[in-house]
Design brief:
- With 391 residues, this protein is mainly alpha-helical.
- The chain contains 15 helices and eight strands.
- The strands form four sheets. It has a two-stranded antiparallel sheet. A two-stranded antiparallel ribbon has the order 2-3.
Length: 391
C-alpha cells in the first residue's frame, strides 16, 4: 500500500476500464485500495515500520479517500459514479471499507455511506438475474460469455446491507436477491431441473437459467476462463460479512460452488485439443495456472486464486489438505513476485496482468483473503437454510 505517494486521483465519469490508462476506473481503484487500508487497521495488522507511517495516518488517509469517493456518487453529485455496470461492485467494496472503519468515520460520512450502500443494494436487487443459458438450455446472449462474475458482483452491496441494516424494510428484497444471485451465478444446466429444497423453495424455482458448463468450467471471452472461475469468491464474500455480525450466512453462498472449484483441480484438458501442455488448470504441486484456451488479461494472477483456495479450505468446497496446499503455493508465488521490487508492488510487465488498477486490486484481494482466513481460523462461521424473508 503506497501510503506515501501523492493525493488520490480525481473521480472521472464512466465505469469501464481503459487498459493501461492511469485515469481509468478511478472509483473502483479507490474503493479497492481503501478496503486494503481498512482491513489492515481492522485486523490489527498495521506495521508502521514496514509501511512507513503510523496507523493513525493510515486511518486519516482512508477516511479522506472514503469521503472523496462517497461524495462523488450519483446520490450526491449529478453525473457521479454509481448504478449501472459496475456501480454495485464499487459500492460493495466502498461499503465494506467504511463498515470496517465505522468507529473512525465522521457522522456525516457514515450517513453518506449508508445511503450509497442502501441505494446500490436496492437498485441492484431489482436488476435481472443475468445468465448464459435459459432453463431449456438455449443461449440467452453470446454463447462465449457467461454472466457469472457480473451477477455475483451485482449483489455485493445487498450482501453488506443485510449486515448493516438489520431493521430495514428492504431486507426481504435484499436476501432474495442475494440467494438467487448466488445460485444463478454458478448453476450448471442440470441444476435448473433440481427439486431439492433450498431456502424453502425447490432449487429449480430459484434459477432462470445457468452460467456454468456441465463440467464446472466457466466460458468467458469465448474461452475457458480460470480467472473468472475464481470469482466465485465474490459469492462467498457473504460468509465473513454475516459472521462479523454474529449471524449465519445463507447456504446458497457455497451450495453450487464445489463443482466449479473441483474443475480447477481435476478437469483435464488434452493438449491435442487445447493449448500446450494440456493438463489441469491447477497443475499438481505447482503454483502456475494453466489456461487451456489462452488468456486475455495475463497469466500472473496468484492472489485471486489464493483467495478462492482459502475459501475452499475454510468452507468445505474441497478437502482442506488439497485446498490448503494450493493456497500455500499461490501465496508463496505472490510473495516471490512482490520480492522482485523494492516498493512493494506485485506486478511487473503488463503481460502479467493488463488491468490499470492491478495493484489496487491486490489490496482488495489481500484484504478479503485476510478476512476469510480470520473467519476460518476462528471457526465462528455457520450456514443457514432459512427462507429469504427470514434473514
Amino acid at each position: 500500500v503506497h501510503l506515501t505517494k501523492g493525493p488520490p486521483v480525481l473521480l472521472s465519469r464512466g465505469a469501464r476500464s481503459i487498459q493501461n490508462d492511469a485515469t481509468a476506473d478511478p472509483a473502483r481503484r479507490i474503493a479497492n485500495i481503501t478496503l486494503g487500508l481498512a482491513t489492515t487497521v481492522a485486523a490489527d495488522a498495521w506495521d508502521a515500520g514496514l509501511i512507513g507511517v503510523s496507523e493513525q495516518v493510515g486511518i486519516e488517509r482512508a477516511v479522506a479517500l472514503l469521503e472523496h469517493l462517497a461524495r462523488g456518487h450519483q446520490a450526491f453529485e449529478a453525473g457521479g459514479w454509481g448504478g449501472g455496470w459496475q456501480g454495485s461492485l464499487v459500492g460493495g467494496y466502498l461499503g465494506r471499507a467504511a463498515w470496517l472503519l465505522w468507529d473512525e468515520l465522521p457522522t456525516t460520512l457514515r450517513a453518506e455511506v449508508a445511503r450509497i450502500v442502501e441505494k446500490e443494494a436496492t437498485e441492484a436487487a431489482g436488476e435481472p438475474m443475468v445468465h448464459l443459458r435459459d432453463a431449456t438450455g438455449h443461449y440467452v446472449g453470446a454463447p462465449g460469455d457467461s454472466r457469472a462474475e457480473e451477477l455475483s458482483w451485482q449483489v455485493l452491496p445487498a450482501q453488506l446491507a443485510l449486515a448493516m441494516f438489520p431493521d430495514s424494510d428492504h431486507r426481504s428484497v435484499w436476501s432474495h436477491a442475494v440467494i438467487q444471485a448466488a445460485l444463478t451465478s454458478w448453476a450448471r444446466p442440470a441444476d435448473v431441473a433440481r427439486a431439492d429444497l433450498v431456502h424453502g423453495l425447490p432449487l429449480s424455482s430459484w434459477l432462470p437459467g445457468s452460467n456454468v458448463e456441465a463440467d464446472g468450467t466457466v466460458i468467458n471471452h469465448d474461452r475457458v476462463a480460470p480467472e473468472y472461475m475464481a470469482l466465485m469468491s465474490q459469492t462467498m464474500d457473504q460468509v465473513w460479512v454475516q459472521t462479523l455480525v454474529g449471524d449465519a450466512a445463507p447456504q446458497a453462498a457455497t451450495l453450487l460452488l464445489a463443482p466449479v472449484y473441483d474443475a480447477l483441480l481435476t478437469r483435464t484438458f488434452d493438449a491435442a485439443d487445447y493449448a500446450s501442455p494440456g493438463g489441469t488448470i491447477y497443475p499438481p504441486g505447482e503454483s502456475s495456472i494453466y489456461y487451456p484456451q489462452g488468456d486475455d488479461w495475463g497469466t500472473g494472477l496468484r492472489l485471486r486464486f489464493a483467495l478462492v483456495d482459502a475459501q475452499a479450505q475454510s468452507y468445505g468446497l474441497a478437502g482442506a489438505e488439497t485446498a490448503g496446499a494450493f493456497l500455500r503455493l499461490h501465496l508463496e508465488a505472490a510473495a516471490a513476485m512482490q520480492d522482485r521490487f523494492a516498493d512493494g508492488r506485485i506486478y511487473g510487465d503488463w503481460s502479467e496482468f493488463a488491468y490499470v488498477g492491478r495493484e489496487e486490486m491486490i489490496a482488495q484481494e489481500a484484504a478479503l483473503l485476510v478476512l476469510t482466513i480470520g473467519v476460518g481460523d476462528a471457526d465462528t462461521f455457520s450456514f443457514t437454510d432459512r427462507p429469504a424473508g427470514a434473514f
